[in-house]
UniProtKB/TrEMBL annotation:
Cofactor-binding details, from the entry: Binds 1 Fe(2+) ion.
Catalyzed chemical reaction(s): N-terminal N-formyl-L-methionyl-[peptide] + H2O = N-terminal L-methionyl-[peptide] + formate
Function: Removes the formyl group from the N-terminal Met of newly synthesized proteins. Requires at least a dipeptide for an efficient rate of reaction. N-terminal L-methionine is a prerequisite for activity but the enzyme has broad specificity at other positions.
Protein name: Peptide deformylase
InterPro entries registered for this protein in UniProt: Peptide_deformylase, Peptide_deformylase_sf
One MF annotation (Gene Ontology) recorded for this entry: peptide deformylase activity
Length: 172
């Protein structure tokens, strides 16, 4: 297992639409291991493959918030199949937008479907943090970031800040 470098905004890779996984190969298993390792190291509760630069529809999550009882999830080709009318506001962050948090409104409950590493299709209903997290991560597979839900003013402000930081780093 390898901790891989995170892709940070304004990197345009984050805007790619990721491709479906066709077959669960050794490479896909290794990618899942690396994603989990990278996510736990960050630390974060969710990671999409594109956040380590791989444009495939794969997500890792662990919303257990306990180091003693890890509950790693690997979602292959996940999709939302139902979302509640009721909404909920949650303060979100993203490993690709470090140290920036803002409230985002999303459906309160969702049902989602995915394939696990054994190739089984699983359908699951979620509320709370898991519901927020799975929606946030599936957005990544479609090139969508949580800042896209904020006002243009807020989004421009955070993009400008990270563009400046990227420039400084490139110039250093
Ligand atoms: Ni994110």
């Amino acid at each position: 297992m390898t901790i891989r470098p995170l892709v940070i905004i304004p990197d345009s890779k984050l805007r790619l639409v990721s491709e479906p996984v066709q077959e669960i190969t050794g490479e896909i298993r290794r990618l899942a291991d690396d994603m989990l390792e990278t996510m736990y190291d960050a630390p974060g509760v969710g990671l999409a493959a594109i956040q380590i630069g791989v444009p495939v529809r794969m997500v890792t999550m662990d919303v257990s918030k306990s180091e003693d009882e890890r509950q790693p999830m690997v979602l292959i080709n996940p999709e939302i199949v139902w979302a509640s009318e009721a909404k909920r506001v949650y303060e979100e962050g993203c490993l690709s937008i470090p140290e920036y948090y803002e409230e985002v409104e999303r459906p309160d409950r969702v049902r989602f479907r995915y394939m696990d590493l054994e190739g089984a299709t699983i359908e699951q209903e979620a509320d709370g943090l898991l519901a927020t997290c799975v929606q946030h991560e599936i957005d990544h597979l479609n090139g969508v970031l949580f800042i896209d839900y904020l006002s243009k003013l807020k989004r421009d402000r955070v993009m400008t800040k990270f563009k400046k930081a990227a420039k400084r780093e490139a110039g250093a």
